[in-house]
Design goal:
Elements: E1 9-13, H1 19-26, H2 29-35, H3 43-51, H4 57-60, E2 63-69, E3 74-84, E4 89-96, H5 106-121, E5 126-132, H6 136-144, E6 148-159, E7 162-172
Amino acid sequence: MVSLQGNIIKLRALETADLDLLFELENNPSVWEISGTMAPYSRDVLKLYLENAHRDIYDVKQLRLVICTQDNEAIGLIDLFDFDPKNRRAGVGIVISDEGNRNRGVGTEAMEILCKYASKTLNLRQLYANILEGNDRSLYLFKKLGFELVGTKRDWIFNEGIFKNELLFQKIFK
């Protein structure tokens, strides 16, 4: 099995202690644009989500992991979604909660670990990412990790009165 431990971070399953992090991220309007959220989540709804977070990826078609420092401080989330074992693919998304933890290699290492896990443990052939045009940090990260631009979804996301293009990136494992 692939280790979910890196040099600067590790990935772990969601725990009930992650309620505050989940509440902060799911209720952050700056993340809503990319997550498709239109209203805040209550703590009660998020508690129910955490109670069911143990369910198998083959059942719920999603896996959400917590990005932690080596001291086990939760600093972000990384997801596999639209898990499709028949066609051996899944979508991927990542969010780092605090600006101070960005541009320090955290996202790169988390994505490298997840890509290895998806390829070796889940036997996936490919991952894809939907990135808003203009999200330069994400574009840099995914290009750096070998994801290739395969398409543009024109006027795909409507937010704050304007339409934005969403770019589709894909990484095929050899």
